[in-house]
């Protein structure tokens, strides 16, 4: 569960095409800007321990009036389930273009070269956008390892 401070809104949305629950995270950031960051994990739920797979995550931002905001870089982090990022969190830049972040994920028994390793037992995937002077992070969803 994501607990958002006052001024932040978190809204759950339906289920994926596989019937697995997922959420879009809508965060209204800052009283001055009132921007919304939306990131969705969609169908990524199960991952095998030997798998290496590219995952595309839609990430968009908009001003309070709905005007799209151009994002130049989106970073991703893998954290233990139910943990929140802190100053020691390692953020990795993914390939961000046209509203989508693409990252290569690797299971715990797969070659981690050039990939973000998912530990045995799974993890929560987070995205981060630096929008000076603000830094916004949102939990996108959970990755489980079979």
Description:
The model is unreliable at 1-32 (pLDDT under 50). This protein has strands spanning 12-15, 21-29, 35-40, 46-47, 52-62, 74-79, 92-93, 95-97, 100-106, 116-117, 123-131, 134-145. A hairpin with a 2-residue loop joins strand 8 (95-97) and strand 9 (100-106). Strands 1, 2, 3, 5, 8, 9 and 10 form a seven-stranded mixed beta sheet that branches. It has a five-stranded mixed beta sheet with strand order 4-12-11-6-7, with no helix packed on it. It is 0% helix and 50% strand. The protein has a single domain (12-145), classed as Macroglobulin (MG2) domain (Immunoglobulin-like). With 146 residues, it is mostly beta strands. The chain is built from no helices and twelve strands.
Topology:
Blueprint: E1 12-15, E2 21-29, E3 35-40, E4 46-47, E5 52-62, E6 74-79, E7 92-93, E8 95-97, E9 100-106, E10 116-117, E11 123-131, E12 134-145
Parallel strand pairs: 4-12, 9-10
Antiparallel strand pairs: 1-2, 2-3, 3-5, 5-9, 6-7, 6-11, 8-9, 11-12
